[in-house]
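call fold target=HNH endonuclease
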Amino acid sequence: MPRRPAHFCNCGRIVAACSRCVCQQAADRVRKARHDRNRPSARERGYDRDWQRERAAFLIVNPTCKRCGAQATDVDHIKPHRGDRWLFWDRRNWQALCGHCHDSHKQREERHALKCEALV
């Protein structure tokens, strides 16, 4: 199977296929830090001791990832609650996911949904 060739970054460096340039990684860190400054803490968003207790109980009852069947480590809100306390605590809106599915597939879907909402 052929491999993708290296490419040039906008800064002029040669970057291996499927990699990001040092300048792109630095720009990502700056962008994420800027976003985090404006974001409330996990506790302020509702992820407190009560959430940890309910999360642990949910994972005991639902030990496998809803997507791939691996060991579940995260409780995900199917529909993002966006600060709605009722939706946050609605167990019908929870699903057990492994770390990989939660951090990659699910986050990508939510970003795509936000872009679609912005277009409407």
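return ok
The mean pLDDT is 87. The first helix runs from residue 22 to 38.
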